[in-house]
Design a protein that fits this description.
Blueprint: H1 2-39, H2 45-59, H3 62-74, H4 80-93, H5 95-105, H6 111-126, H7 133-155, H8 163-170, H9 177-194, H10 197-209, H11 215-228, H12 230-236, H13 242-276, H14 290-309, H15 313-323, H16 347-376, H17 384-412, H18 418-453, H19 460-483, H20 490-519, H21 524-552
Helix pairs in contact: 1-2, 1-7, 2-3, 2-4, 3-4, 3-12, 3-13, 3-16, 4-13, 4-14, 4-15, 5-10, 5-14, 6-7, 9-10, 9-11, 10-11, 11-13, 11-14, 12-13, 13-14, 13-15, 16-17, 16-18, 16-19, 17-18, 18-21, 19-20, 19-21, 20-21
Length: 555
């Protein structure tokens, strides 16, 4: 008995490892293109649903798709209503796995295909000169996945030889709604445990094929798996932006709503599927046709649920907005929450998290620079609270630098393609440059405070001459913020270089004017303070150019 259990667990482990390896390979080979598709999503709900379906069908993981969507919403690349459409499509896409298992897994001897696939994949993976390592990894994963499925099918004992198992299971069936919700719960727990609705579906189909569970029981477990798969996106959204958390709640709301409307029409729906799919599942040999019926049930349920809910995307968005209200105030502690897709947790997906955090960091330093100039140009304002706020923001940038750098260091230890490895180095540099801008902004606020406390009078004409200089740097900060998650073209790089050159020219001009005022007998403390401000502002321009160069090297 123990040996048989270990066989089942080992077969499942091989299946899950194959799924992860295949997903890793696909995402490394086509990850950038998949992200581009999401990035250029429009408000068209049909296009959003199709995008979610296509990506999930390709990478074979609705969890990976929904986590990717949460990441994009967090980074501001997708609107909430767009993300809901993509998540709906992902639910349809995940049904493809059921069809692959139902059609191929039980009717074709998959070991005949899986071993050659592993052989070809290993050859591509081994020889670097071919430059098809990612494709090789995909083929190896494909082979392992179906080899695991073959072992799983063979390791599950024939129910005819173990009638006591059927008797034990029969005690939980035939109790109406109680049995229905019990097996929904079983399906949800199963999906949470294996952290993959595709793997849970494969297990359910295998048990149904072996005769362990009947048609209604298996269908109820499938419904539960739809709820269980929402847990991954929910966990991924913890500690993220408000809209990202709303996207994950929309996923949960959508799937739970589907189970609720299915409850009163459950048996009617099963009869409808029986009418579409040939074969009597209630006959003695019905278990052999059951996988196809379950795959169709899963598909029809998700298609119907998506069709109904697609007309209420705005209402769903309104509801989740009520569930997750807006937040106010500056955070005092920063912790980088890793967005993981668990079985499909590739470094390429992690880098989306970092892009989002870099955008947040850029927002903080932009606010810090604006605060400095607002205070400096209005010395009559109260300084105590402003300096304290600036200090908190500077501490926040320090914490962000530490957490993001630590996270990127961990990513660099994972197996990733050369584009992602280069991106990790560039992101580390961007993080350091942003933190340095935060330091400069805090130092500028301290200079404004010194002017206030020591009552240093600066020539109004000198203060006025700083305005275009500060405005130029402010323009540069806005430029890096708007291009932080975009490709830097040669035209954009030329704009950045021109901004930096103009800042340097203006710095030289401002320093010369300060020297002339000193020679003319101006207050030494005033002019030294002025020169310090010019120097710190110019340093921010240098950091901005370094950031643009690093963004240009991102994959």
């Amino acid at each position: 008995m123990v040996y048989q259990v270990l066989q089942v667990v080992g077969s499942l482990g091989l299946f899950l490892f194959g799924m992860r390896t295949m997903s890793d390979g696909i995402q490394k080979a086509a990850g950038d293109r998949l992200q581009s598709i999401l990035n250029f999503m429009t408000g068209n709900r049909v296009a959003a649903i199709f995008t979610g379906f296509a990506i999930t069908a390709i990478i074979q993981s609705s969890s990976a798709t929904t986590v990717m969507v949460v990441s994009f919403v967090n980074a501001g690349l997708l609107q909430l209503t767009q993300s809901i459409g993509v998540i709906m499509g992902a639910n349809i896409g995940t049904t493809v796995t059921g069809w692959i298992v139902a059609i191929l897994g039980f009717k074709v001897k998959m070991s005949a295909l899986s071993l050659p696939a592993i052989g070809i994949g290993f050859t591509l993976f081994l020889f670097k000169k071919i430059n098809k390592k990612d494709l090789g990894e995909t083929l190896i994963g494909f082979g392992l996945l179906f080899l695991g499925l073959e072992f799983l099918k063979n390791s599950v004992p024939d129910i005819g030889n173990h009638p006591e198992m059927l008797e034990a299971l029969a005690r939980f069936t035939g109790h109406g709604l109680a049995s229905y919700f019990l097996f929904i719960f079983v399906g949800a727990v199963l999906t949470i445990l294996v952290q993959s609705s595709s793997a849970a579906m494969a297990i359910t189909l295998t048990m149904a094929y072996a005769g362990w569970i009947d048609y209604p029981t298996a269908a109820a477990i499938v419904l539960g798996e739809n709820i269980g798969t929402t847990v991954t996106a929910y966990l991924a959204s913890i500690g993220t932006s408000v809209n990202a958390r709303r996207a994950s709640r929309a996923h949960t709301l959508f799937n739970v709503f589907g189970v609720l409307w299915m409850t009163p029409v459950f048996y009617i729906f099963l009869q409808f599927v029986d009418f579409i799919v040939p074969g009597d599942v209630y006959a003695l040999s019905g278990a052999k046709t059951l996988p196809a019926h379950l795959a169709m049930f899963h598909t029809m349920f998700n298609l119907t649920n998506t069709f109904v809910c697609s007309f209420f995307i705005k209402q769903i968005a309104f509801l989740v907005t009520k569930f997750v209200p807006d937040e106010e105030g500056l955070p005092t502690q920063y912790t980088l929450k890793y967005i993981r897709a668990t079985l499909q947790d590739t470094p390429e997906l992690y880098l989306l998290t970092v892009k989002r955090e870099l955008a947040k960091m850029a927002d903080v330093i932009a606010d810090m620079f604006t605060r400095f100039w607002d205070i400096f140009s209005h010395p009559e304002k109260r300084m105590v609270d402003e300096v304290e706020t600036q200090k908190k923001m500077e501490d926040l940038t320090d914490q962000m630098q530490e957490e993001i750098t630590k996270f990127l260091s961990q990513c660099s230890m994972d197996n990733m393609n050369h584009v992602s490895a280069r991106s990790v180095y560039s992101m580390m540099r961007i993080t350091n440059e942003l933190e340095s801008i935060g330091d400069s902004c805090y130092n500028l606020m301290l200079l404004a405070e010194r002017r206030y406390k020591q009552n240093i009078e600066i020539d109004p004409i000198a203060v006025e001459s700083l305005l275009p200089y500060v405005d130029l740097v402010n323009q540069f900060i806005r430029f890096i913020r708007s291009h932080l998650n975009e490709h830097i073209s040669s035209e954009n790089m030329a704009v950045a270089v021109k901004l930096e050159n103009n800042i340097n020219k203006m710095r030289n001009s401002l320093k010369q004017s300060a020297s002339k005022r000193l020679q003319g007998g101006a207050n030494v403390r005033s002019e030294l303070l002025f020169i310090d401000i010019v120097r710190h502002v110019e340093q921010i321009g240098d950091h901005c150019l370094n950031i643009v160069e690093s963004v240009g090297r991102l994959g």
